[in-house]
Design goal:
With 169 residues, this protein is mainly beta. 12% of the residues lie in helices and 39% in strands. It folds into two domains: 128 residues, no CATH class; 37 residues, no CATH class. It contains two helices and nine strands. It starts with a strand and ends with a helix.
């Protein structure tokens, strides 16, 4: 878990501090599949700006994720650029929504923030190829390797009542 200490910050309103930090990234599960960041430790830019009422955090880094394709389960690699922002109000008794969940005991939890920022920056589907055909819903074969059809697809008898209703409409 990578943390950045905030106690040592001595910024006046409007001042900015830029730091190059190394963040240890954790693997995460998405749609029941595990995705691994490679490399596990990435170089990131952390920018902290002192606002009148709190701190503005900006985090920028690039990440490559390895895991299964969401259509055919083949190995997929996704390069992603992450640009995240968080605000943390200085007043402890203020609105809870203005308190960043990543600031704990005067430390900024970079690993948790980076994991969530990666998840928000992901596309709808992680695919090994944009034209991935997926798996055959009948036999489970990879349609990218062998395109085929099934002539005699028998329907489940439990659906017969609904099929009769469909035919009447």
């Amino acid at each position: 878990m990578t943390r950045f200490p905030l106690r040592r910050l001595r910024l006046r309103s409007g001042e900015v501090q830029r730091d190059a930090v190394e963040i240890e990234l954790e693997p995460f599960d998405l749609g029941g599949q595990r995705y691994l960041p490679v490399p596990q430790v990435v170089e990131a830019e952390l920018v902290i700006t002192q606002a009148t009422t709190g701190l503005l955090f900006e985090l920028r880094f690039g990440v490559r994720l390895h895991g299964p394709c969401m259509r055919c389960l083949a190995d997929a690699a996704l390069d992603n650029r992450v640009d995240a922002r968080e605000y943390h109000a200085a007043a402890a008794g203020g609105d809870e929504e203005l308190q960043s969940e990543y600031v704990v005991d005067d430390q900024l939890e970079l690993t948790a923030w980076a994991r969530d920022a990666i998840a928000l920056a992901l596309p709808d589907q992680i695919l090994h190829d944009p034209d991935c055909a997926g798996l055959c819903p009948v036999c489970g074969k990879d349609l990218n390797v062998e395109s085929h059809t099934h002539d005699d697809v028998s329907n489940d008898p439990r659906w017969s009542a609904l099929e009769g209703l469909r035919d009447r409409l």
